[in-house]
Specification:
The structure is a homodimer. By secondary structure, chain A is of the alpha+beta class. Chain A contains four helices and five strands. In chain A, the strands form two sheets. Chain A has a three-stranded mixed β-sheet with strand order 4-3-5. A two-stranded antiparallel sheet of chain A has the order 1-2. Chain A is flat. Chain A binds a DNA duplex through helix 3.
DNA sequence: TTTAAATTTGTAATTATTACATTTTTATTA
DNA sequence: TAATAAAAATGTAATAATTACAAATTTAAA
């Protein structure tokens, strides 16, 4: 694994899960799914691994208003949209460089997050169908 | 109180606290400070009241990557900057209308949040002073 | 003043996360 | 290969945030 992290089996599987299922899962989701494959997996290992991947900048936490920590293996700049109906989190391309503010001119900005809430296309369609 | 919420004493005090101290406090901060004035105050009331104010759109939660829910009585559009050193959250003016993305063209966007992380001016000054 | 409704309170339950000691695995070296 | 040391994973317990809910209190209405 990159960034000097030893590629143990659980670590590979956890990162793999994040990369393939791009659903911004919670610890619970990751654990519940992987424990089928790795019966000895413990939730603490999932926490440890995610925190390790975060400090290595391979994974980041999705900023939100909820008390659910969700993880994302895509650390390139993009926005997150959370659907209020189905709870899904969508990625979207956004140019955070276009965001300008004079208020922070003497601040050191390390990270810019953009987070939207609303109703996704699919749920809008479902609502319409039911009326 | 506006929005059809009955202005009880705890409710007024909680909203007043949020409006005057614009520090985006946690429930704990609000409770700890107000209990001095209102000795019978319970933390459940703080939670209840904040959730009530949120559903009335008088208060909003600050989106972040941390597991700390912080509240803001300013519901007009602005960004939040969190300092990694001192933990303070700063408001800043930002034109979220300038954010455009084609990826969400069939989505209903209800709320746009902008959240930055980094080091604030004050902490940058302190670091420089110590070197 | 009585009654009903709304609000607040306190305790218990739930959930997410971290702390930490123990066990297991992996890598190293004799 | 066996012994040893280091790293990683595990499981349990502790902590903290939040919600559920029933009881008590306050407020408003009749």
């Amino acid at each position: 694994m990159e960034h000097g992290i030893k590629p143990s089996y659980p670590r590979i599987k956890i990162l793999e899960y994040l990369i393939t299922k791009r659903s911004h899962p919670t610890v619970d989701e990751i654990y519940s799914n992987l424990v089928k494959e790795i019966p000895t997996l413990s939730k603490t290992t999932v926490y440890n691994t995610l925190n390790l991947l975060i400090s290595a900048n391979i994974v980041r936490v999705v900023a939100s208003e909820e008390n659910e920590t969700r993880y994302d293996a895509d650390v390139t700049s993009h926005g997150h949209f959370k659907c209020e109906k189905c709870g899904a989190i969508y990625d979207f391309r956004i140019d955070v460089g276009a965001l300008k503010t004079d208020d922070l001119k003497n601040f050191k900005i390390k990270e810019k997050n953009v987070y939207y809430r609303g109703i996704c296309e699919e749920c809008l369609d479902n609502i319409e169908n039911k009326i």
